[in-house]
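Predict the assembly for these two chains.
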Amino acid sequence: MLAQQYVDMLSKKNIIRNLSEYAVGRGKEIGYENVFDYTLGNPSVPVPKSFNDSIIRLIGEKSPFDLHGYCQSLGIGEVRKAVAESLNRRFGMEYTMDHIFMTSGAAGAIAHAIRLVTVAGDEVLTFAPFFPEYTPYVNQTGAILKVVPPDTETFQINFELFEEMINPKTMAVLVNSPNNPSGIVYSTQTVKKLAEILTEKSKEYGHIIYLISDEPYREIVFEGVDSPYIAKMYDNTITCYSFSKSLSVPGERIGYVAVNPKCPDAEKMIVMCGQISRGIGHNCPSTIIQWAVSENLDVTADLSVYERNMNILYDELKALGFTVVKPGGTFYIFPKALEEDAVAFCEKGKKYDFIGVPADSFGCPGYFRLAYCIDTEKCERSLEALRRFVKEEYR
Amino acid sequence: MLAQQYVDMLSKKNIIRNLSEYAVGRGKEIGYENVFDYTLGNPSVPVPKSFNDSIIRLIGEKSPFDLHGYCQSLGIGEVRKAVAESLNRRFGMEYTMDHIFMTSGAAGAIAHAIRLVTVAGDEVLTFAPFFPEYTPYVNQTGAILKVVPPDTETFQINFELFEEMINPKTMAVLVNSPNNPSGIVYSTQTVKKLAEILTEKSKEYGHIIYLISDEPYREIVFEGVDSPYIAKMYDNTITCYSFSKSLSVPGERIGYVAVNPKCPDAEKMIVMCGQISRGIGHNCPSTIIQWAVSENLDVTADLSVYERNMNILYDELKALGFTVVKPGGTFYIFPKALEEDAVAFCEKGKKYDFIGVPADSFGCPGYFRLAYCIDTEKCERSLEALRRFVKEEYR
């Protein structure tokens, strides 16, 4: 008999994928360059040349066994060391390789982090708007994801509701800053207050509440925006990182778990990740990709297009009267729809080939997400479609 | 609080790893070339040149987005199609891409297969001797692994005990042929009889009993050995494959699940794998590695060293009076120890720098495994150590 929980998942409509498929299909009719497809968070800038150069050089230089052989179950030692040193250099941390576990991107990192600190029935809190994949990440471990409603004024944390919802079953809080879908970056003040509450509640409940910090957009922060390194502000932080966006290599599935050395049992938590892997069949990212990443830790793809596109869209949305908070990073912007039902709003946008995603599945109905990881030229051309959409439907 | 099940796993001694570490440590004292280290199943032949050539050419030819971008959640379509066609060509099957799901090696494949067809409390049967990692693969899903004792005469299946143990809770049977650790290949007769029993019991219990066939050693079969393609003989077969051994790329973590098209709901099972991935954070093997593998599906590393080494060891073991069944494939041989306690036997071997692994954790106490994926020259030199070991300890 097939496992019913996965059969059930099949019948749930994935609105993001449906809209993306619509956009691609429409592109076949009128030319994809004429479809303003803001559906998917797929990096639009190429991998840095140095990354591909590393791969080619490694093939020439390394023995085939070093290059393609089994690696240690926690990841290649030299690579973990290089990751730790890069983090220390950039954020003044004190990681060693014993605090780093290599994973299949942020998804793999979160899958390990949740299993590390929860058992069936435990609660994990996250903040709306949130990445919808958190639901299967958490629920398939047996833990329960609870979502704190958003503060739509700022898209920082709604602390009032958070303090109402946190309880002795809360074993972890899962945050994502810079945030998908809001584009907002948590301020130092926000993280500080969050850390204070977690510290106080950990004491009150008699167990550590871990902060699981999902940071795939860490490198995409816009000029002048306050972007604290979260683990620096709360000892019991498990940082989950992916190189997908910083290096534009989402298909290579590489990231890491980093446990703050000040967290009790930090080193033990990393070796536990190796045990968790045995059950989920993960066994590390590709070795050649680990080596290549380790040579490109302080490099990023040219991410400037994202800030440029953000400014173009933000200005136009404001001019058209949208309620929208200016993003501090990522490649998402998150305006309020012009009618209560964002699904209906996005449906109408199709008529103008302007395709955004309603945020119901992000825990924030009434809003929509635009993923502006597209060429700036196309972003500029989309404004005319947006203007017509707003004028003809809502004026 | 840390999840206790993974803490508990840390305290369990891993005898294979301990012996391997001993061998490496001893190598630092006397030179690794003088340690006859038969502990680990790590391929000893290099990747085929064509594989690395593919990577370099792909970097030059493909757009960075095709090469390193997100792939579809079931794996790259063209790669799945190429895998299906290769299997059809070689084994006369009728797979399409809709029957193939790309995974992180056989480990990832088994992790998906078990979740696909079991829920908590279901039983999965396997046959001793068996790969010890099956225990975490199965148990971490909530299902229960039960082990059918071995037929030590042939290391084919002990059908008498199998028929005693199979019961209405049995949802899947997990087989591994060519087998780690015995080196034995299941004959057509064995697989046929297994298929008959599964068909009969499926009918009797009113539910399909799936055959999960773990085949990382499929390409390492010795001359003249009968090696049926298992899925061809039982419709409800989920084949789990890894390229680790055939292409000597274990660090690249690539393999697949193939569901026999004759299995009811075969296509549905593949899309279910995509849902399972969401919870375990897998999201496909590396894209560049998927592309490179798809160009090297009918290629293998030069695997001839394994048969050469097998013959050298088999002849010597027989001459020394060991009870041993001649392997039909893999790079393992599985003799009976010269005393009841194979742990004590292997411990004594250390004195002669002849390092094998006792098979208690493989469900077959009293036997030991030699992983002869080493240079033939070293294999030949090891015979003198083996002879002294046997003579001085057991004559």
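DSSP finds 14 helices and twelve strands in chain B. Chain B touches chain A through 75 residues (CB under 8 Å).
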